[in-house]
Batch of 2 targets.
Target 1
Amino acid sequence: MHKAINNIVLIGMMGTGKSTVGALLAVETGMKMVDLDEQIVQEAGLSIPEIFAIKGEAYFRDLESLLLSRVLSKSGIVLSTGGGAVLREANRQTMLAGGRVFALQATAEEIIARVGEDPNRPLLAGDAGQRIRTLLDERKQAYDFAHYAIDTTGKDAAHVAAEILTHYRG
């Protein structure tokens, strides 16, 4: 018996609004909000910058894949993923099988304004603006597998959440 897919999976670059919009969606739907990065921090007992520094990115990505599968094996979840969770094909398949996938997008300028000064983002070390532009370029096709793409540039989280629910509820 195939279980009904009733999870909402939010993907996209850092700073596109996944956590903020996810929290609103959870309230609106009565579903449980899960932030995958927070799950990783709890499981590892280290902050994300510490995981990258002490254990390395490969360890982080392996833990991310494990927890992604664990979370999406349940129903009634709004899942906010880290920006790089889509880099592994297995993760993309897990997301598609586990819920309706929404890719949140924003311009480089919008992302820089939102997260450019955030010290908890190890991939932005150095020139954050340049790193964001590079990551956007490197990952421009990485989010194409999503069921829907939503541009969050210049929109407040409530508007984005309403747009997602319109698609989700069909």
Note: The longest strand covers residues 100-105.
Target 2
Amino acid sequence: MVSNNELYIARIVYSTSTDGVGLRNSLYVSGCPIHCAECHNKQWWDIESGEKQTVDSVFSHLNSDQFDISILGGEPLMQYEPILNLCKMIKENTDKTIWLWSGYTLEWIKLHYPEILSYIDVLVDGPFVSKLSLPNLQWRGSTNQRIWKVKNVNEIFDITEKLFDM
């Protein structure tokens, strides 16, 4: 599998406005154990479908400009330790916001991976459910998915249906 300092990367998209507020650099990781029906990224379910890179290298790529960061997949928490290390590095060395998408719910993440909540600003949670998909949903694929503003592990606010200023 992957070490704490290596990530399998499906792709990095620079200067995109589709993965969160404003222009962002989006990191798409490979590997996903959830396998949502009608997933848009099935080609990345196998972790080895991506290119192995060090966390330092990914950090450099994501921070080659002033844009904030989005982390999607695949399932980012499948590579939890290196994703956590990357988020820590971003927060310790920049003032960028981090959005993270996970097929797991906030409740599950709080139980299994609470530390990540100290290093992200927004969490989009829940599996993609095709029968709950709507064409104009902002930043999520289906209506069961929620958007959370994260201040820390104890201060998390549901902003799914609200307009907000980031």
Note: The mean pLDDT is 89.
